[in-house]
Amino acid sequence: MPTSRRAPAALLLRRGGERLLFDCGEGTQRQLQRSAVGLPEIEEIFLTHLHADHVLGLPGMLKTFALRGREAPGLTVHGPRGVRDLFGKLKPFLGRLPYPLTVVELAPGDVLERGDYRLEAFAVDHGVAAVGYALVEEERPGRFDVVAADALGIPAGPERGMLQGGEPVTLPDGRVITPDAVLGPARPGRKVTITGDTAASPNVVQAAYRSDLLVHEATFGADEAGRARETLHSTAAEAAQVAKLAEVRLLALTHVSPRYIGSELRREAQAFFAETVVPRDFDLIEIPFPERGAPRLVKRGGAGGGERSYHRVAMARMIQVATAGDVTEAEELQELLRDAGIDAEIEPLADEDGLSVLVPEDSLEAAQDAIEALSEPDDIIAEP
Ligand SMILES: [Zn+2]
Ligand SMILES: [Zn+2]
């Protein structure tokens, strides 16, 4: 469920000029408006399953597109079995839409071929009709070897372009040059796998195999392993074991229950799989081509201009100072720190908006984690 800091499921994947939205929980259109992306004329939405926390944002967003007078482009919603029926039921909310709306049902194993990549729908284990999605880029042609091309006497011109595109060329002197003479080995594309809600599943291991990024749900921590099993969700440790078996490069845990801050789940997961992050709303994960480095989390990387920082933490002799927005937050923070067993003194700052939060130095890390639950990570600055 949503909290003041966390919105329900929605993930925007940008690839070149494309923007694919995976799930559309309540309030997704407002989160997009607040983000650096804004609310673009999304053309494709992929639903993992039809539980309310993944679809309630749809009617409002589709209606906004209509109110903007959008006639084109059309919008396609992909989802598991039952998604057509859902749209039948949404009709009274949606009324007449001025743009074409297409609803496509996908079954596990379906593959959408999309030029230089494909989207694979795969089975997950959530007790209802549900699919995960793997975006798999095709291999890219190898690097063009200019030195080899010069040595072969290939003129600088369209011939080189044809070779780069994988076509053989015939030179004026009659020699036929094949692409392999001037191209290095094919370079792998990228792969991103998004599970949606699921218990840890061998299907996911298979589908996510060697992903650059696996976005796996981790609704619970080890303390709620029984509940995870009952509700067909995953614990952080289970998601990490899936990531390890699948040999992915980076694991991002999402769909975190409000009872957790996030950092405790990250630590549980890292015991099994070190490359784990728990992104917050408006964080961004960059996935470069494999030869250009590893995928990485950019905290607040997707935040819009209005979402600026307002927390600061400075470490003095015994101490950490945080500025917080308002009294409600101070109380919330005090409670959080108390729950974490930390004695804190909180008082208003003299010359700035906000609060000073003093904690013993040996509680610094724990306090930082607790404050992170209220604030945004980039806003915490440790100052000696
Ligand atoms: Zn669900
Ligand atoms: Zn859910």
CATH-assigned homologous superfamily of the largest domain: Ribonuclease Z/Hydroxyacylglutathione hydrolase-like
List ligands, each type once. Answer: zinc ion
CATH topology of the largest domain: Metallo-beta-lactamase, Chain A
E-strand count: 20
Radius of gyration: 25 Å
Averaged pLDDT, please?
87
Q: Give the helix level as a range of percent.
A: 25-40%
Main sheet properties: 7 strands, mixed
Q: How does the helix and strand content classify structurally?
A: alpha/beta
Instruction: Write down the CATH class of the largest domain.
Output: Alpha Beta
Q: What is the count of distinct domains?
A: 3
Which key terms come to mind for this protein?
384 residues; alpha/beta; Metallo-beta-lactamase, Chain A; VC0802-like; 3 domains; seven-stranded mixed beta sheet; five-stranded mixed beta sheet; 12 helices; 20% strand; globular; disordered C terminus; binds zinc ion
Give a written overview of the molecule.
Strands 6-7-8-11-12-13-14 form a seven-stranded mixed beta sheet. The longest helix has 13 residues, at 327-339. Helix 9 packs across helix 10 and helix 11 (327-339) packs across helix 12 (364-374). The chain folds into three domains: 11-139 and 187-298, Ribonuclease Z/Hydroxyacylglutathione hydrolase-like (Metallo-beta-lactamase, Chain A); 146-181, no CATH class; 314-379, VC0802-like, CATH 3.30.2130. It is α/β, with parallel strands linked by helices. Strand 13, helix 10 and strand 14 form a beta-alpha-beta unit. It has twelve helices and 20 strands. Bound molecules: zinc ion (ZN) (2 copies). One zinc ion binds at residues 49, 51, 126, 197. One zinc ion binds at residues 9, 51, 53-54, 197, 255.
